[in-house]
Amino acid sequence: MTQRYIEYMPLPDIPSATRNAKDHDLAGIRASIETFGCVVAGEIDERTGRLVVGHGRKEVLTKMAAEGASPPEGVQMAKDGTWLAPIVRGWSSRSDADAEAYLIAHNRTGEKGGWYQDVLAQSLLDIQQADAALLAATGYSSDELADLEEALAVDAHVAAGVSDDERYGVDGGVDDVADGPSPEEFQSFDDDISTDYQCPRCAYEWSGKPR
């Protein structure tokens, strides 16, 4: 097994992958780097010599350097002024398909993980109360936090008085209750009434103000 190590490489000398399906929130990446520094190193495939992780960071750092900004924490500067970015070395793909599969998997696995919405909302609220600038650096805005809190409040209201078995089904799946009866405290309406809201857990639909 090849040992992994960090090498600081000149930005112009870091070749990108020949194809990259992942788009990037460059403004968000820049805000993160300017706030926290360059915390995560990119990764190069030793077989191809090309980047497999870190394309967005490379693009942002290249733009910052061209603008004459000071190198963020975690980035070094050569004597000639070239920025040196941290790169993980030591991994080799088995084929071009293997390299591209890893590039996609690296992004897709994080994307599929999702969030624990209640924990996320509380974390963002605590961050906002501590420092509003830090909230912006997370990639979430105060409006998005408000929307998240509102959705959780609606969910909590609908779930009030409903047991876990009724809410999640005996095997814990949301689909088990999607076609079940609505909670007793909700008023019944004709089927053709327009609806504005739907509970994400029990699929109950209603109009009016979210509560």
- Average of pLDDT: 85
Q: Judging from the principal axes of the Cα atoms, what is the shape?
A: elongated
Taking the alpha carbons of the first and last residues, their distance comes to 57 Å
Count the helices. How many?
7
Percentage of β-strand residues: 5-15%
DSSP strand tally: 7
Unreliable stretches (pLDDT < 50, length at least 5) are 174-178
Biggest β-sheet strands, sense, barrel: 5 strands, mixed
Helicity, as a percent range: 25-40%
Provide the structure class.
alpha+beta
Cα gyration radius (Å): 24 Å
Task: Write the element-wise H/E pattern from the N-terminal end onward.
Answer: EHEEHEEHHHHHEE
Properties at a glance:
single chain; 211 residues; alpha+beta; two-stranded antiparallel ribbon; 7 strands
Structure description:
The strands form 2 sheets. Strands 1, 2, 3, 4 and 5 form a 5-stranded mixed β-sheet that branches. This protein has a two-stranded antiparallel sheet with strand order 6-7. Helix 4 (117-130) crosses helix 6. The protein has helices at residues 26-36, 55-66, 96-113, 117-130, 132-137, 142-159, 164-168; strands spanning 5-10, 42-45, 50-53, 76-77, 83-91, 197-198, 205-206. A hairpin with a 4-residue loop joins strand 2 and strand 3 (50-53). It has 7 helices and 7 strands; from the N terminus they run βαββαββαααααββ. Helices cover 40% and strands 14% of the residues. It is α+β, with helices and mostly antiparallel strands.
List the helices and strands and how they pair.
Elements: E1 5-10, H1 26-36, E2 42-45, E3 50-53, H2 55-66, E4 76-77, E5 83-91, H3 96-113, H4 117-130, H5 132-137, H6 142-159, H7 164-168, E6 197-198, E7 205-206
Parallel strand pairs: 2-5
Antiparallel strand pairs: 1-5, 2-3, 4-5, 6-7
Helix pairs in contact: 1-2, 4-6
